[in-house]
């Protein structure tokens, strides 16, 4: 979601007055059943993390590990139903979701990739699932939704990087009354993590004694996005996570068309996090420092020419500690150098990225694409261990079937190699990460 500066809203209101005379989404409603949809997404995921230099996932209790491997394979299905809105001034509708996963491979000695919950004996669950629903109301082009839902705000975003996505419980209002302007506000009281089957929060920062902290009680979010032109958008968002922090976000995105085959894109993302109440008293990442106050920004420039895209990005983190997220959703990090393993958000960290993308459609193979990138970070402040450094290389290939009975079936192979120096090894151990993801989306209604 991209948002404009609040000072521009008045200008947008003046410029968009004529939009009120046009038919709204609610005016064009066909009905509860007439606009309904039912979709099923099947996903198979294999994930292996091969830890190096003596690290691992299951401890022997003496500083050594039973295994350096984490390996799981599973299949999940996500069924989502969305009704249309009833006709009239106020439209009413219902949304529902049901999801579940089954373990195909993986045991207690190789657990820890986040694909499955773990039972009391330390074994990955053989199956898991959850259901949810929400009611929704629409007036003109404004929608209010309450219940279980997926959220994609830069200050509160549910994660879908494993078999089952996170699900938030709360209220979200989205308004598109003015062309090009989208406003949103919400309050959420629970967040079910990807391996969580209930509606409890995802957990939070440790308390002052280093023990597991309480989960998030509630979070309020606000946002606005505005398209200044077809090529220039802006964004602002803010959140207040009870007892943890207040977070602010800004985005500016501009594309400069050069000709039909070439363009240049600039994308700026920035966060300011201010600790609130007990959030100022805790050690966010376990390095002996306290507080969660942080400033984080990134700037990426991408040059596209035909089938090729070349990207360079720079990112910086500063403040009392590293950038912290998770209690507000495991995808709440909209910056350039947040990649497969690391986010490059250490305390005082500076990082650079070089990336290359190739779309094979130009060469007669539509649906096939490749990507590779390298990010290096340094200048990380540690707890008396010297300068922390880290680097990561990613390679990825994806193919989507374009037609026929298996249309939209996709195959995605991802590989990452992560390394850090001794001063920063406590943050994330060296490892090689391999993932194979197969997805098949099906529109039933």
TrEMBL record:
UniProt keyword terms in alphabetical order: Signal, Transport
Recorded GO CC terms: membrane
UniProt key word Ribonucleoprotein: no
Matches recorded under Gene3D superfamilies: Porin (2.40.160.10)
Domain of life assignment: Bacteria
Any one Gene Ontology molecular-function term assigned to this protein's record: porin activity
Transport is among the record's keywords: yes
Signal peptide positions (record): 1-23
InterPro entries: OM_porin_bac, Porin_dom_sf
Entry similarity comment: Belongs to the outer membrane porin (Opr) (TC 1.B.25) family.
Protein name: Porin
């Amino acid at each position: 979601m991209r948002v404009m500066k609040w000072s521009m809203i008045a200008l947008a209101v003046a410029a968009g007055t004529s939009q009120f005379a046009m038919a709204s989404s609610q005016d064009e409603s066909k009905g509860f059943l007439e606009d309904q949809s039912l979709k099923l997404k099947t996903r198979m995921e294999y994930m292996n993390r091969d830890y190096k230099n003596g690290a691992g996932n299951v401890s022997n209790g003496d500083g050594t590990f039973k295994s350096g491997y984490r390996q799981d394979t599973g299949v999940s299905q996500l069924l989502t139903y969305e009704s249309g809105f009833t006709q009239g001034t106020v439209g009413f509708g219902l949304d529902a979701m049901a999801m579940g996963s089954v373990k195909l491979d993986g045991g207690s000695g190789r657990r820890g990739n986040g694909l499955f919950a773990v039972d009391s004996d330390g074994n990955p669950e053989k199956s898991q699932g959850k259901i949810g629903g929400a009611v929704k109301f629409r007036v003109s082009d404004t929608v209010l939704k309450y219940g279980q839902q997926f959220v994609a705000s830069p200050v509160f975003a549910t994660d879908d990087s494993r078999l089952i996505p996170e699900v938030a419980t709360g209220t979200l209002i989205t308004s598109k009354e003015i062309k090009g302007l989208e406003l949103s506000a919400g309050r959420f009281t629970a967040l079910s993590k990807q391996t969580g089957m209930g509606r409890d929060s995802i957990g939070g920062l440790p308390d002052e004694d280093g023990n597991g902290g309480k989960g998030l009680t509630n979070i309020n979010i606000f946002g606005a996005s505005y398209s200044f032109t077809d090529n220039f958008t802006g964004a602002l968002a803010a959140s207040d996570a009870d007892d943890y922090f207040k977070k602010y976000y800004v985005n500016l995105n501009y594309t400069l068309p050069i000709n039909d085959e070439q363009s240049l894109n600039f994308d700026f993302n920035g966060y300011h996090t201010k600790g609130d109440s007990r959030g100022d008293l805790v050690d966010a990442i376990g390095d002996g420092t306290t507080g969660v106050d942080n400033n984080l920004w990134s700037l990426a420039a991408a040059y596209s020419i035909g089938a090729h895209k070349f990207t360079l990005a720079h990112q910086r983190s500063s403040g009392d500690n590293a950038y912290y997220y998770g209690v507000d959703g495991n995808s709440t990090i909209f910056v350039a150098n947040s990649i497969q393993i690391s986010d490059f958000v250490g305390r005082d960290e500076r990082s650079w990225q070089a990336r290359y993308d190739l779309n094979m459609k130009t060469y007669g193979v539509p649906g096939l694409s490749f990507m590779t990138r390298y990010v290096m970070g340094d200048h990380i402040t540690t707890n008396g261990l010297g300068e922390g450094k880290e680097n990561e290389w990613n390679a990825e290939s994806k193919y989507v079937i374009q037609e026929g009975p298996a249309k939209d079936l996709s195959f995605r192979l991802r590989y990452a190699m992560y390394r850090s120096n001794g001063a920063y090894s406590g943050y994330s151990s060296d490892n090689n990460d391999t993932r194979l993801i197969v997805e098949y989306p099906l529109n039933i209604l």
